[in-house]
Amino acid sequence: MAVIMDGKVAAQQADQEFAMRIQKLKQQNIIPGLAVILIGDDAASQVYVRNKARRARKIGINYQLHRLDRGITQEAVLQLITQLNQDTQVDGIMVQMPVPKQIDANAVMNAILPQKDVDGFSFANIGRLWGNAAGNFPATPRGVLRLLRDYHITIEGQQAVVVGRSDIVGKPMAGLLLKNNSTVTIAHSKTQNLAQVTQQADLLIVAIGQAEFITADFVKPGAAVVDVGMNHNAAGKLVGDVDFKSVKQIAGYLTPVPGGVGPMTITGLLEQVIVLAEQRATL
Ligand SMILES: NC(=O)C1=CN([C@@H]2O[C@H](COP(=O)(O)OP(=O)(O)OC[C@H]3O[C@@H](n4cnc5c(N)ncnc54)[C@H](OP(=O)(O)O)[C@@H]3O)[C@@H](O)[C@H]2O)C=CC1
Ligand SMILES: Nc1nc(=O)c2c([nH]1)NC[C@@H]1CN(c3ccc(C(=O)N[C@@H](CCC(=O)O)C(=O)O)cc3)C=[N+]21
Ligand SMILES: [Mg+2]
Protein backbone atom coordinates (compact mmCIF):
# COMPACT_ATOMS: atom_id res chain seq x y z
CA MET A 1 0.00 0.00 0.00
CA ALA A 2 1.26 3.45 -0.95
CA VAL A 3 2.38 6.06 1.55
CA ILE A 4 -0.20 8.84 1.25
CA MET A 5 1.50 12.22 0.77
CA ASP A 6 -0.47 14.59 2.95
CA GLY A 7 -0.50 18.03 1.38
CA LYS A 8 -2.52 19.52 4.21
CA VAL A 9 0.08 18.62 6.82
CA ALA A 10 2.99 19.72 4.60
CA ALA A 11 1.18 23.00 3.92
CA GLN A 12 0.62 23.63 7.65
CA GLN A 13 4.34 23.11 8.31
CA ALA A 14 5.20 25.51 5.50
CA ASP A 15 2.79 28.14 6.87
CA GLN A 16 4.61 28.09 10.22
CA GLU A 17 7.91 28.73 8.47
CA PHE A 18 6.30 31.49 6.36
CA ALA A 19 4.74 33.22 9.38
CA MET A 20 8.23 33.51 10.95
CA ARG A 21 9.71 34.91 7.74
CA ILE A 22 6.91 37.49 7.61
CA GLN A 23 7.53 38.47 11.25
CA LYS A 24 11.12 39.29 10.29
CA LEU A 25 9.96 41.38 7.34
CA LYS A 26 7.54 43.30 9.56
CA GLN A 27 10.44 44.30 11.79
CA GLN A 28 11.77 46.06 8.69
CA ASN A 29 8.33 47.60 8.07
CA ILE A 30 7.68 45.40 5.06
CA ILE A 31 4.38 43.58 4.68
CA PRO A 32 4.25 41.15 1.74
CA GLY A 33 1.47 42.21 -0.63
CA LEU A 34 -0.49 39.94 -2.99
CA ALA A 35 -3.11 41.18 -5.46
CA VAL A 36 -5.38 38.59 -7.08
CA ILE A 37 -7.59 39.35 -10.07
CA LEU A 38 -10.60 37.09 -10.57
CA ILE A 39 -12.65 37.61 -13.72
CA GLY A 40 -16.01 35.82 -13.84
CA ASP A 41 -16.87 32.71 -11.85
CA ASP A 42 -14.73 29.68 -12.84
CA ALA A 43 -15.37 26.99 -10.20
CA ALA A 44 -11.74 25.84 -9.63
CA SER A 45 -10.69 29.48 -9.35
CA GLN A 46 -13.33 30.16 -6.71
CA VAL A 47 -11.92 27.34 -4.56
CA TYR A 48 -8.39 28.60 -5.05
CA VAL A 49 -9.33 32.21 -4.25
CA ARG A 50 -11.20 31.28 -1.08
CA ASN A 51 -8.48 29.00 0.30
CA LYS A 52 -5.52 31.20 -0.50
CA ALA A 53 -7.21 34.30 0.99
CA ARG A 54 -7.61 32.48 4.28
CA ARG A 55 -4.04 31.19 4.37
CA ALA A 56 -2.45 34.43 3.16
CA ARG A 57 -4.20 36.47 5.84
CA LYS A 58 -3.42 33.92 8.55
CA ILE A 59 0.34 34.17 7.97
CA GLY A 60 0.29 37.96 7.65
CA ILE A 61 0.29 38.65 3.93
CA ASN A 62 -1.58 41.76 2.82
CA TYR A 63 -4.04 40.11 0.43
CA GLN A 64 -6.34 42.00 -1.93
CA LEU A 65 -8.89 40.46 -4.27
CA HIS A 66 -10.15 42.30 -7.36
CA ARG A 67 -13.33 40.63 -8.54
CA LEU A 68 -14.18 41.72 -12.06
CA ASP A 69 -17.38 41.13 -13.98
CA ARG A 70 -17.14 38.37 -16.58
CA GLY A 71 -18.03 40.90 -19.31
CA ILE A 72 -15.17 43.30 -18.48
CA THR A 73 -13.01 44.65 -21.34
CA GLN A 74 -9.37 43.75 -21.80
CA GLU A 75 -8.51 47.44 -21.61
CA ALA A 76 -10.00 47.71 -18.13
CA VAL A 77 -8.03 44.65 -16.96
CA LEU A 78 -4.80 46.10 -18.39
CA GLN A 79 -5.50 49.38 -16.64
CA LEU A 80 -5.87 47.62 -13.29
CA ILE A 81 -2.61 45.74 -13.89
CA THR A 82 -0.79 49.00 -14.67
CA GLN A 83 -2.04 50.45 -11.39
CA LEU A 84 -0.92 47.36 -9.43
CA ASN A 85 2.46 47.36 -11.21
CA GLN A 86 3.02 50.89 -9.85
CA ASP A 87 1.80 50.14 -6.32
CA THR A 88 4.93 49.76 -4.15
CA GLN A 89 2.96 47.83 -1.49
CA VAL A 90 2.12 45.06 -3.97
CA ASP A 91 4.84 42.42 -4.37
CA GLY A 92 2.88 39.90 -6.42
CA ILE A 93 0.06 40.12 -8.94
CA MET A 94 -1.86 37.17 -10.33
CA VAL A 95 -4.79 36.73 -12.70
CA GLN A 96 -6.88 33.63 -12.14
CA MET A 97 -7.02 31.34 -15.15
CA PRO A 98 -9.03 30.75 -17.27
CA VAL A 99 -10.16 34.21 -18.35
CA PRO A 100 -13.31 34.92 -20.42
CA LYS A 101 -12.90 34.69 -24.18
CA GLN A 102 -12.86 38.44 -24.94
CA ILE A 103 -9.65 38.65 -22.86
CA ASP A 104 -6.29 37.64 -24.37
CA ALA A 105 -4.66 35.65 -21.55
CA ASN A 106 -1.14 36.17 -22.94
CA ALA A 107 -1.63 39.92 -23.25
CA VAL A 108 -2.81 40.10 -19.65
CA MET A 109 -0.02 37.93 -18.24
CA ASN A 110 2.67 39.75 -20.17
CA ALA A 111 1.37 43.12 -18.90
CA ILE A 112 2.36 42.16 -15.35
CA LEU A 113 5.89 43.30 -14.49
CA PRO A 114 8.01 40.11 -14.64
CA GLN A 115 9.23 40.59 -11.05
CA LYS A 116 5.61 40.92 -9.82
CA ASP A 117 4.35 38.02 -11.94
CA VAL A 118 3.99 35.57 -8.99
CA ASP A 119 2.47 32.85 -11.16
CA GLY A 120 5.45 32.91 -13.52
CA PHE A 121 3.10 32.74 -16.51
CA SER A 122 4.60 35.68 -18.45
CA PHE A 123 6.88 34.93 -21.40
CA ALA A 124 9.72 36.60 -19.49
CA ASN A 125 9.46 34.08 -16.66
CA ILE A 126 8.82 31.10 -18.97
CA GLY A 127 12.06 32.05 -20.72
CA ARG A 128 13.86 32.26 -17.40
CA LEU A 129 12.67 28.77 -16.42
CA TRP A 130 13.82 27.16 -19.67
CA GLY A 131 16.86 29.45 -19.97
CA ASN A 132 18.23 28.44 -16.57
CA ALA A 133 17.95 31.89 -15.02
CA ALA A 134 16.44 32.93 -11.70
CA GLY A 135 12.78 33.96 -11.98
CA ASN A 136 9.27 33.36 -10.70
CA PHE A 137 7.99 29.86 -11.45
CA PRO A 138 4.42 28.49 -11.32
CA ALA A 139 2.93 27.61 -7.95
CA THR A 140 1.57 24.14 -8.67
CA PRO A 141 4.86 22.63 -9.90
CA ARG A 142 6.76 24.33 -7.06
CA GLY A 143 4.27 22.93 -4.56
CA VAL A 144 4.59 19.45 -6.05
CA LEU A 145 8.38 19.54 -5.76
CA ARG A 146 8.18 20.71 -2.17
CA LEU A 147 5.81 17.84 -1.31
CA LEU A 148 8.12 15.27 -2.96
CA ARG A 149 11.06 16.68 -1.00
CA ASP A 150 9.08 16.61 2.26
CA TYR A 151 8.63 12.87 1.67
CA HIS A 152 12.33 12.45 0.80
CA ILE A 153 11.56 11.24 -2.70
CA THR A 154 14.56 11.25 -5.02
CA ILE A 155 14.14 13.43 -8.11
CA GLU A 156 17.63 13.47 -9.60
CA GLY A 157 18.26 10.74 -12.14
CA GLN A 158 14.70 9.39 -11.91
CA GLN A 159 12.38 8.75 -14.85
CA ALA A 160 9.63 11.37 -14.58
CA VAL A 161 6.53 11.28 -16.74
CA VAL A 162 4.25 14.33 -16.78
CA VAL A 163 0.81 13.63 -18.27
CA GLY A 164 -0.66 16.92 -19.55
CA ARG A 165 1.07 19.83 -21.32
CA SER A 166 -0.83 22.91 -20.19
CA ASP A 167 1.02 26.20 -19.78
CA ILE A 168 -0.01 26.41 -16.12
CA VAL A 169 0.84 22.87 -14.95
CA GLY A 170 2.28 20.31 -17.38
CA LYS A 171 4.95 22.34 -19.15
CA PRO A 172 6.34 24.18 -16.10
CA MET A 173 6.23 20.90 -14.11
CA ALA A 174 8.40 19.29 -16.78
CA GLY A 175 10.74 22.30 -16.74
CA LEU A 176 11.24 22.19 -12.98
CA LEU A 177 11.77 18.42 -12.96
CA LEU A 178 14.39 18.82 -15.69
CA LYS A 179 16.08 21.60 -13.72
CA ASN A 180 16.22 19.12 -10.83
CA ASN A 181 17.89 16.47 -13.02
CA SER A 182 15.02 14.08 -13.67
CA THR A 183 14.80 12.40 -17.07
CA VAL A 184 11.55 13.92 -18.29
CA THR A 185 8.83 12.74 -20.67
CA ILE A 186 5.74 14.83 -21.41
CA ALA A 187 2.63 12.89 -22.50
CA HIS A 188 -0.67 14.36 -23.75
CA SER A 189 -3.89 13.47 -25.52
CA LYS A 190 -2.11 12.50 -28.74
CA THR A 191 0.37 10.19 -26.99
CA GLN A 192 0.13 6.62 -28.28
CA ASN A 193 0.22 3.72 -25.83
CA LEU A 194 -0.01 6.05 -22.84
CA ALA A 195 0.04 3.21 -20.31
CA GLN A 196 3.34 1.93 -21.73
CA VAL A 197 4.83 5.40 -21.31
CA THR A 198 3.54 5.95 -17.77
CA GLN A 199 4.67 2.47 -16.68
CA GLN A 200 8.26 3.70 -17.11
CA ALA A 201 7.76 6.45 -14.54
CA ASP A 202 9.42 6.50 -11.13
CA LEU A 203 7.68 9.87 -10.71
CA LEU A 204 4.27 10.14 -12.36
CA ILE A 205 2.66 13.58 -12.34
CA VAL A 206 -0.87 13.70 -13.77
CA ALA A 207 -2.64 16.93 -14.81
CA ILE A 208 -5.25 16.13 -17.46
CA GLY A 209 -8.64 17.03 -16.01
CA GLN A 210 -10.14 13.53 -16.56
CA ALA A 211 -11.79 12.02 -13.50
CA GLU A 212 -10.03 8.88 -12.18
CA PHE A 213 -8.45 8.21 -15.58
CA ILE A 214 -5.12 6.78 -14.38
CA THR A 215 -5.74 3.32 -13.00
CA ALA A 216 -3.30 0.78 -11.51
CA ASP A 217 -2.38 -0.60 -14.95
CA PHE A 218 -0.72 2.76 -15.83
CA VAL A 219 1.58 2.66 -12.81
CA LYS A 220 4.99 1.09 -12.16
CA PRO A 221 5.03 -0.72 -8.81
CA GLY A 222 6.55 1.55 -6.14
CA ALA A 223 6.26 4.74 -8.21
CA ALA A 224 5.52 8.13 -6.64
CA VAL A 225 2.23 9.29 -8.15
CA VAL A 226 1.13 12.93 -7.91
CA ASP A 227 -2.46 13.77 -8.81
CA VAL A 228 -2.96 17.41 -9.82
CA GLY A 229 -6.48 16.90 -11.19
CA MET A 230 -9.63 18.38 -9.70
CA ASN A 231 -12.78 16.95 -11.19
CA HIS A 232 -16.26 16.01 -10.15
CA ASN A 233 -17.21 12.40 -10.80
CA ALA A 234 -20.65 11.11 -11.83
CA ALA A 235 -21.76 11.19 -8.19
CA GLY A 236 -20.70 14.84 -7.90
CA LYS A 237 -17.77 14.05 -5.61
CA LEU A 238 -14.43 15.90 -5.95
CA VAL A 239 -11.90 13.45 -7.40
CA GLY A 240 -8.51 13.63 -9.06
CA ASP A 241 -7.21 12.36 -12.39
CA VAL A 242 -5.95 9.22 -10.64
CA ASP A 243 -8.10 6.31 -9.53
CA PHE A 244 -7.03 6.53 -5.89
CA LYS A 245 -8.39 3.15 -4.80
CA SER A 246 -6.62 1.00 -7.38
CA VAL A 247 -3.42 3.06 -7.64
CA LYS A 248 -2.76 3.07 -3.89
CA GLN A 249 -2.44 -0.73 -4.07
CA ILE A 250 0.55 -0.49 -6.41
CA ALA A 251 2.20 2.93 -6.01
CA GLY A 252 4.92 3.63 -3.44
CA TYR A 253 3.61 7.14 -2.76
CA LEU A 254 0.36 8.83 -3.75
CA THR A 255 -1.34 12.18 -3.23
CA PRO A 256 -5.05 12.32 -2.32
CA VAL A 257 -7.63 14.73 -3.77
CA PRO A 258 -8.55 16.83 -1.89
CA GLY A 259 -5.67 17.30 0.54
CA GLY A 260 -2.77 16.71 -1.82
CA VAL A 261 -1.58 19.11 -4.51
CA GLY A 262 -4.28 21.76 -3.90
CA PRO A 263 -2.92 22.95 -0.53
CA MET A 264 0.66 22.72 -1.87
CA THR A 265 -0.21 24.98 -4.82
CA ILE A 266 -1.17 27.64 -2.30
CA THR A 267 2.11 26.96 -0.46
CA GLY A 268 4.01 27.49 -3.72
CA LEU A 269 2.26 30.79 -4.30
CA LEU A 270 2.66 32.12 -0.75
CA GLU A 271 6.35 31.28 -0.76
CA GLN A 272 6.87 33.14 -4.02
CA VAL A 273 5.15 36.23 -2.55
CA ILE A 274 7.38 36.10 0.53
CA VAL A 275 10.53 35.72 -1.59
CA LEU A 276 9.51 38.81 -3.57
CA ALA A 277 8.92 40.79 -0.36
CA GLU A 278 12.31 39.63 0.97
CA GLN A 279 13.87 40.94 -2.23
CA ARG A 280 12.10 44.28 -1.71
CA ALA A 281 13.52 44.38 1.84
CA THR A 282 17.08 44.23 0.49
CA LEU A 283 16.55 47.04 -2.05
N1 LIG B 1 -4.64 21.36 -7.59
C1 LIG B 1 -4.19 22.40 -8.25
O1 LIG B 1 -3.48 23.19 -7.72
C2 LIG B 1 -4.53 22.58 -9.68
C3 LIG B 1 -5.36 21.69 -10.29
N2 LIG B 1 -5.65 21.81 -11.61
C4 LIG B 1 -6.45 20.73 -12.20
O2 LIG B 1 -5.56 19.90 -12.96
C5 LIG B 1 -6.20 19.42 -14.12
C6 LIG B 1 -5.43 19.86 -15.36
O3 LIG B 1 -5.44 21.25 -15.45
P1 LIG B 1 -4.75 22.06 -16.64
O4 LIG B 1 -3.34 21.63 -16.74
O5 LIG B 1 -5.10 23.47 -16.47
O6 LIG B 1 -5.60 21.40 -17.85
P2 LIG B 1 -5.79 21.73 -19.40
O7 LIG B 1 -7.18 21.32 -19.71
O8 LIG B 1 -5.29 23.06 -19.74
O9 LIG B 1 -4.80 20.65 -20.07
C7 LIG B 1 -5.05 19.28 -20.02
C8 LIG B 1 -3.90 18.53 -20.62
O10 LIG B 1 -4.15 17.14 -20.47
C9 LIG B 1 -4.05 16.48 -21.72
N3 LIG B 1 -5.03 15.41 -21.76
C10 LIG B 1 -6.38 15.51 -21.69
N4 LIG B 1 -6.94 14.29 -21.74
C11 LIG B 1 -5.93 13.39 -21.84
C12 LIG B 1 -5.87 11.99 -21.93
N5 LIG B 1 -6.98 11.23 -21.95
N6 LIG B 1 -4.67 11.39 -22.02
C13 LIG B 1 -3.55 12.14 -22.02
N7 LIG B 1 -3.53 13.49 -21.94
C14 LIG B 1 -4.72 14.10 -21.84
C15 LIG B 1 -4.33 17.55 -22.77
O11 LIG B 1 -3.70 17.18 -23.98
P3 LIG B 1 -3.70 18.11 -25.31
O12 LIG B 1 -2.68 19.17 -25.02
O13 LIG B 1 -3.27 17.19 -26.38
O14 LIG B 1 -5.08 18.63 -25.44
C16 LIG B 1 -3.72 18.79 -22.12
O15 LIG B 1 -2.35 18.88 -22.41
C17 LIG B 1 -7.63 19.94 -14.03
O16 LIG B 1 -8.41 18.95 -13.39
C18 LIG B 1 -7.51 21.16 -13.16
O17 LIG B 1 -8.71 21.48 -12.49
C19 LIG B 1 -5.09 22.78 -12.37
C20 LIG B 1 -4.27 23.73 -11.82
C21 LIG B 1 -3.91 23.69 -10.42
N1 LIG C 1 -3.46 31.91 -12.42
C1 LIG C 1 -3.85 30.75 -11.90
N2 LIG C 1 -2.97 30.01 -11.18
C2 LIG C 1 -3.36 28.81 -10.66
O1 LIG C 1 -2.55 28.12 -9.99
C3 LIG C 1 -4.73 28.37 -10.83
C4 LIG C 1 -5.58 29.21 -11.57
N3 LIG C 1 -5.11 30.36 -12.11
N4 LIG C 1 -6.87 28.86 -11.77
C5 LIG C 1 -7.44 27.69 -11.13
C6 LIG C 1 -6.44 26.60 -10.88
C7 LIG C 1 -6.89 25.63 -9.83
N5 LIG C 1 -6.05 25.84 -8.69
C8 LIG C 1 -6.28 25.33 -7.41
C9 LIG C 1 -5.52 25.67 -6.32
C10 LIG C 1 -5.80 25.19 -5.05
C11 LIG C 1 -6.87 24.36 -4.84
C12 LIG C 1 -7.18 23.86 -3.46
O2 LIG C 1 -7.04 24.58 -2.48
N6 LIG C 1 -7.64 22.60 -3.31
C13 LIG C 1 -7.94 22.01 -2.03
C14 LIG C 1 -9.40 22.16 -1.65
C15 LIG C 1 -10.36 21.47 -2.56
C16 LIG C 1 -11.83 21.70 -2.16
O3 LIG C 1 -12.11 21.81 -0.98
O4 LIG C 1 -12.69 21.74 -3.07
C17 LIG C 1 -7.52 20.54 -2.03
O5 LIG C 1 -7.25 20.00 -3.14
O6 LIG C 1 -7.45 19.97 -0.98
C18 LIG C 1 -7.63 23.99 -5.91
C19 LIG C 1 -7.34 24.47 -7.18
C20 LIG C 1 -5.08 26.75 -9.03
N7 LIG C 1 -5.22 27.19 -10.29
MG1 LIG D 1 -5.44 17.97 -3.90
TrEMBL record:
<keyword id="KW-0028">Amino-acid biosynthesis</keyword>
<keyword id="KW-0486">Methionine biosynthesis</keyword>
<comment type="function">
    <text>Catalyzes the oxidation of 5,10-methylenetetrahydrofolate to 5,10-methenyltetrahydrofolate and then the hydrolysis of 5,10-methenyltetrahydrofolate to 10-formyltetrahydrofolate.</text>
</comment>
<dbReference type="InterPro" id="IPR036291">
    <property type="entry name" value="NAD(P)-bd_dom_sf"/>
</dbReference>
<dbReference type="InterPro" id="IPR020867">
    <property type="entry name" value="THF_DH/CycHdrlase_CS"/>
</dbReference>
<keyword id="KW-0378">Hydrolase</keyword>
<keyword id="KW-0511">Multifunctional enzyme</keyword>
<dbReference type="Pfam" id="PF02882">
    <property type="entry name" value="THF_DHG_CYH_C"/>
</dbReference>
<keyword id="KW-0368">Histidine biosynthesis</keyword>
<dbReference type="InterPro" id="IPR000672">
    <property type="entry name" value="THF_DH/CycHdrlase"/>
</dbReference>
<comment type="subunit">
    <text>Homodimer.</text>
</comment>
<feature type="domain" description="Tetrahydrofolate dehydrogenase/cyclohydrolase NAD(P)-binding">
    <location>
        <begin position="138"/>
        <end position="279"/>
    </location>
</feature>
<dbReference type="GO" id="GO:0004488">
    <property type="term" value="F:methylenetetrahydrofolate dehydrogenase (NADP+) activity"/>
</dbReference>
<keyword id="KW-0521">NADP</keyword>
<feature type="domain" description="Tetrahydrofolate dehydrogenase/cyclohydrolase catalytic">
    <location>
        <begin position="5"/>
        <end position="119"/>
    </location>
</feature>
<dbReference type="InterPro" id="IPR020630">
    <property type="entry name" value="THF_DH/CycHdrlase_cat_dom"/>
</dbReference>
<dbReference type="GO" id="GO:0004477">
    <property type="term" value="F:methenyltetrahydrofolate cyclohydrolase activity"/>
</dbReference>
<feature type="binding site">
    <location>
        <begin position="164"/>
        <end position="166"/>
    </location>
    <ligand>
        <name>NADP(+)</name>
    </ligand>
</feature>
<protein>
    <recommendedName>
        <fullName>Bifunctional protein FolD</fullName>
        <ecNumber>1.5.1.5</ecNumber>
        <ecNumber>3.5.4.9</ecNumber>
    </recommendedName>
</protein>
<dbReference type="Pfam" id="PF00763">
    <property type="entry name" value="THF_DHG_CYH"/>
</dbReference>
<keyword id="KW-0554">One-carbon metabolism</keyword>
<comment type="pathway">
    <text>One-carbon metabolism; tetrahydrofolate interconversion.</text>
</comment>
<comment type="similarity">
    <text>Belongs to the tetrahydrofolate dehydrogenase/cyclohydrolase family.</text>
</comment>
<keyword id="KW-0560">Oxidoreductase</keyword>
<keyword id="KW-0658">Purine biosynthesis</keyword>
<dbReference type="InterPro" id="IPR046346">
    <property type="entry name" value="Aminoacid_DH-like_N_sf"/>
</dbReference>
<dbReference type="InterPro" id="IPR020631">
    <property type="entry name" value="THF_DH/CycHdrlase_NAD-bd_dom"/>
</dbReference>
